[in-house]
Amino acid sequence: MGRKYYCDYCDKRLPPGSNHRKNHNRGSQHINNKLFYYLQFQDPVEILINERLKKNCIKWTQSNSCLFGNNCKFSHRSSYELIQLIEQAKQNLNNQNNFDVHRWIQRKLSNGSILPESLVS
C-alpha cells in the first residue's frame, strides 16, 4: 500500500492514491486555504493596490461582519488600516531604494576576491 498524503494547507492526511489527492486539491476548502497561505507573503504595495481598487463593504461598515468573510469582493479595511498599509509600502520602497548592490557584493566577497570588471562601477 502507498503512503498517506499530508496536505500542509489543510492540516489533513489523505488516503493513498492519486484520485483522493486530486479531488482534495480541487476542493474549495483547499483552494481557500492555499490562497490565504500565499496572501500572508504578499507585498504591502500589492495589497494596497488591490484594496484601493475595491469599494467598501456596506455590511462590514454597518455591522462589522460579512457573510462572505475573506471571500468578499469588497474591502473590509478601515481608513486607519489603509494608512498603515501606505506607511508600510513607503517604508519598503525606501528600504529597496537604499539597497546598494556593490556594497553588498563587497561584503560577501570580503575574503579579498577581486570583482569582475562588469560589477565594478
UniProtKB/TrEMBL annotation:
<dbReference type="InterPro" id="IPR000571">
    <property type="entry name" value="Znf_CCCH"/>
</dbReference>
<feature type="domain" description="C3H1-type">
    <location>
        <begin position="51"/>
        <end position="79"/>
    </location>
</feature>
<keyword id="KW-0863">Zinc-finger</keyword>
<dbReference type="Pfam" id="PF06220">
    <property type="entry name" value="zf-U1"/>
</dbReference>
<feature type="zinc finger region" description="C3H1-type">
    <location>
        <begin position="51"/>
        <end position="79"/>
    </location>
</feature>
<dbReference type="InterPro" id="IPR013085">
    <property type="entry name" value="U1-CZ_Znf_C2H2"/>
</dbReference>
<keyword id="KW-0862">Zinc</keyword>
<dbReference type="GO" id="GO:0008270">
    <property type="term" value="F:zinc ion binding"/>
</dbReference>
<dbReference type="InterPro" id="IPR036855">
    <property type="entry name" value="Znf_CCCH_sf"/>
</dbReference>
<protein>
    <recommendedName>
        <fullName>C3H1-type domain-containing protein</fullName>
    </recommendedName>
</protein>
<dbReference type="GO" id="GO:0005689">
    <property type="term" value="C:U12-type spliceosomal complex"/>
</dbReference>
<dbReference type="InterPro" id="IPR036236">
    <property type="entry name" value="Znf_C2H2_sf"/>
</dbReference>
<keyword id="KW-0479">Metal-binding</keyword>
